[in-house]
Amino acid sequence: MLTPLRMHPARLSTDELLASCVVRAQRRGGPGGQHRNKVETAIVIEHTLTGLRAEASERRSQADNRRMAIQRLRLTLAVEHREFREAADQEPASPLWRSRVAGTKINVSTEHDDFPAILAELLDGLQVLMFDLSEASKHFTVTSSQLVSLLRSHPPAFALVNAKRVELALHRLR
Predict the structure, then answer these.
(1) Domain that includes residue 53, residue range
(2) 71 and 98 belong to one structural domain
(3) Within a domain: residue 2?
(4) I need a surface site. Which of 90, 94, 119, 165 has the fewest CB within 10 A?
(5) What is the pTM of this model?
(6) For residue 5, what pLDDT band results from cuts at 50, 70 and 90?
Protein backbone atom coordinates (compact mmCIF):
# COMPACT_ATOMS: atom_id res chain seq x y z
CA MET A 1 0.00 0.00 0.00
CA LEU A 2 1.20 3.51 -0.73
CA THR A 3 2.16 5.74 2.14
CA PRO A 4 -0.43 8.28 3.30
CA LEU A 5 -0.71 11.67 1.61
CA ARG A 6 0.97 10.57 -1.63
CA MET A 7 -0.79 11.21 -4.88
CA HIS A 8 -3.43 8.59 -5.63
CA PRO A 9 -2.13 6.28 -8.41
CA ALA A 10 -5.23 6.99 -10.54
CA ARG A 11 -4.04 10.62 -10.75
CA LEU A 12 -0.53 9.81 -12.02
CA SER A 13 0.48 10.47 -15.60
CA THR A 14 0.48 7.42 -17.85
CA ASP A 15 4.29 7.18 -17.75
CA GLU A 16 4.38 7.48 -13.93
CA LEU A 17 1.63 4.90 -13.54
CA LEU A 18 3.24 2.43 -15.94
CA ALA A 19 6.59 2.82 -14.12
CA SER A 20 4.97 1.03 -11.17
CA CYS A 21 3.27 -1.64 -13.29
CA VAL A 22 4.06 -4.86 -15.08
CA VAL A 23 2.66 -4.83 -18.62
CA ARG A 24 2.24 -8.07 -20.57
CA ALA A 25 0.99 -8.76 -24.07
CA GLN A 26 -0.83 -12.06 -24.58
CA ARG A 27 -2.73 -14.02 -27.18
CA ARG A 28 -6.43 -14.47 -26.70
CA GLY A 29 -8.98 -16.64 -28.42
CA GLY A 30 -12.46 -15.69 -29.47
CA PRO A 31 -14.00 -13.74 -32.32
CA GLY A 32 -11.70 -11.83 -34.63
CA GLY A 33 -10.45 -14.45 -37.00
CA GLN A 34 -7.04 -15.99 -37.34
CA HIS A 35 -5.27 -12.66 -36.80
CA ARG A 36 -6.45 -12.58 -33.20
CA ASN A 37 -5.00 -16.01 -32.40
CA LYS A 38 -1.61 -15.38 -34.03
CA VAL A 39 -0.76 -11.97 -32.60
CA GLU A 40 -0.33 -10.90 -28.98
CA THR A 41 -2.83 -8.05 -28.94
CA ALA A 42 -4.31 -8.61 -25.47
CA ILE A 43 -2.78 -6.39 -22.77
CA VAL A 44 -2.65 -7.16 -19.04
CA ILE A 45 -1.39 -4.46 -16.67
CA GLU A 46 -0.72 -5.11 -12.99
CA HIS A 47 -0.01 -2.32 -10.52
CA THR A 48 2.78 -3.83 -8.42
CA LEU A 49 2.24 -1.66 -5.33
CA THR A 50 -1.40 -2.69 -4.91
CA GLY A 51 -1.65 -5.95 -6.84
CA LEU A 52 -4.62 -4.58 -8.79
CA ARG A 53 -4.81 -5.44 -12.47
CA ALA A 54 -6.75 -4.70 -15.61
CA GLU A 55 -6.82 -6.12 -19.08
CA ALA A 56 -8.20 -5.48 -22.52
CA SER A 57 -8.41 -7.84 -25.46
CA GLU A 58 -11.47 -6.83 -27.44
CA ARG A 59 -9.62 -4.87 -30.13
CA ARG A 60 -7.29 -6.20 -32.80
CA SER A 61 -4.84 -3.38 -32.14
CA GLN A 62 -2.39 -3.75 -29.28
CA ALA A 63 -2.23 0.05 -28.91
CA ASP A 64 -6.04 0.29 -28.57
CA ASN A 65 -6.05 -2.52 -26.01
CA ARG A 66 -3.23 -0.84 -24.11
CA ARG A 67 -5.20 2.44 -23.85
CA MET A 68 -8.29 0.57 -22.70
CA ALA A 69 -6.34 -1.47 -20.12
CA ILE A 70 -4.73 1.69 -18.70
CA GLN A 71 -8.14 3.38 -18.34
CA ARG A 72 -9.58 0.25 -16.70
CA LEU A 73 -6.63 0.07 -14.30
CA ARG A 74 -7.12 3.72 -13.36
CA LEU A 75 -10.81 3.05 -12.65
CA THR A 76 -9.99 -0.07 -10.61
CA LEU A 77 -7.43 1.90 -8.61
CA ALA A 78 -9.90 4.75 -8.12
CA VAL A 79 -12.50 2.41 -6.63
CA GLU A 80 -10.42 -0.18 -4.79
CA HIS A 81 -7.43 1.78 -3.49
CA ARG A 82 -7.83 4.45 -0.82
CA GLU A 83 -5.29 7.09 0.11
CA PHE A 84 -6.02 7.61 3.79
CA ARG A 85 -5.89 11.06 5.32
CA GLU A 86 -6.97 12.45 8.62
CA ALA A 87 -9.86 14.89 8.49
CA ALA A 88 -7.45 17.64 9.62
CA ASP A 89 -5.20 16.85 6.63
CA GLN A 90 -8.07 17.06 4.15
CA GLU A 91 -7.12 19.68 1.60
CA PRO A 92 -9.62 21.66 -0.42
CA ALA A 93 -10.66 20.11 -3.69
CA SER A 94 -7.75 19.74 -6.11
CA PRO A 95 -7.14 22.09 -9.03
CA LEU A 96 -8.26 19.26 -11.34
CA TRP A 97 -11.57 18.96 -9.47
CA ARG A 98 -12.08 22.74 -9.42
CA SER A 99 -11.37 22.91 -13.17
CA ARG A 100 -14.30 20.54 -13.71
CA VAL A 101 -16.78 22.45 -11.51
CA ALA A 102 -19.05 25.13 -12.94
CA GLY A 103 -21.28 26.70 -10.33
CA THR A 104 -22.46 23.74 -8.27
CA LYS A 105 -22.14 21.14 -11.04
CA ILE A 106 -19.27 18.83 -11.93
CA ASN A 107 -18.70 18.17 -15.59
CA VAL A 108 -16.65 15.13 -16.59
CA SER A 109 -17.45 12.28 -18.96
CA THR A 110 -16.83 8.71 -17.88
CA GLU A 111 -14.77 8.31 -21.05
CA HIS A 112 -12.44 11.24 -20.29
CA ASP A 113 -8.90 10.60 -19.03
CA ASP A 114 -9.65 12.76 -15.96
CA PHE A 115 -12.60 10.66 -14.81
CA PRO A 116 -10.63 8.09 -12.73
CA ALA A 117 -8.70 10.86 -10.93
CA ILE A 118 -11.91 12.77 -10.19
CA LEU A 119 -13.58 9.58 -8.95
CA ALA A 120 -10.58 8.68 -6.75
CA GLU A 121 -10.57 12.15 -5.21
CA LEU A 122 -14.29 11.90 -4.44
CA LEU A 123 -13.98 8.43 -2.91
CA ASP A 124 -10.95 9.45 -0.81
CA GLY A 125 -12.84 12.53 0.38
CA LEU A 126 -15.94 10.51 1.22
CA GLN A 127 -13.79 8.08 3.23
CA VAL A 128 -12.38 10.94 5.31
CA LEU A 129 -15.81 12.49 5.75
CA MET A 130 -17.33 9.15 6.84
CA PHE A 131 -19.44 8.99 3.65
CA ASP A 132 -21.49 12.02 4.73
CA LEU A 133 -22.78 13.46 1.46
CA SER A 134 -23.79 16.75 3.02
CA GLU A 135 -20.24 17.41 4.25
CA ALA A 136 -18.78 16.12 0.98
CA SER A 137 -20.94 18.49 -1.06
CA LYS A 138 -19.61 21.41 1.02
CA HIS A 139 -16.02 20.21 0.64
CA PHE A 140 -16.29 19.65 -3.12
CA THR A 141 -18.52 22.74 -3.69
CA VAL A 142 -21.13 20.83 -5.67
CA THR A 143 -24.60 19.60 -4.77
CA SER A 144 -25.16 16.21 -3.15
CA SER A 145 -27.14 15.14 -6.20
CA GLN A 146 -24.12 15.93 -8.39
CA LEU A 147 -21.97 13.68 -6.19
CA VAL A 148 -24.53 10.88 -6.38
CA SER A 149 -24.74 11.30 -10.16
CA LEU A 150 -20.97 11.06 -10.46
CA LEU A 151 -20.91 7.92 -8.31
CA ARG A 152 -23.83 6.40 -10.20
CA SER A 153 -21.96 6.85 -13.50
CA HIS A 154 -19.51 4.14 -12.37
CA PRO A 155 -21.53 1.28 -10.81
CA PRO A 156 -18.61 -0.27 -8.84
CA ALA A 157 -18.02 3.10 -7.10
CA PHE A 158 -21.74 3.48 -6.35
CA ALA A 159 -21.87 -0.06 -4.89
CA LEU A 160 -18.76 0.61 -2.77
CA VAL A 161 -20.21 3.82 -1.31
CA ASN A 162 -23.51 2.14 -0.54
CA ALA A 163 -21.72 -0.77 1.18
CA LYS A 164 -19.68 1.65 3.29
CA ARG A 165 -22.77 3.69 4.16
CA VAL A 166 -24.60 0.53 5.31
CA GLU A 167 -21.59 -0.37 7.50
CA LEU A 168 -21.89 3.08 9.10
CA ALA A 169 -25.67 2.70 9.59
CA LEU A 170 -26.43 5.38 6.99
CA HIS A 171 -29.18 4.99 4.41
CA ARG A 172 -28.27 3.66 0.98
CA LEU A 173 -28.05 6.11 -1.90
CA ARG A 174 -30.66 5.80 -4.63
Answers:
(1) 9-80
(2) no
(3) no
(4) 90
(5) 0.86
(6) very low
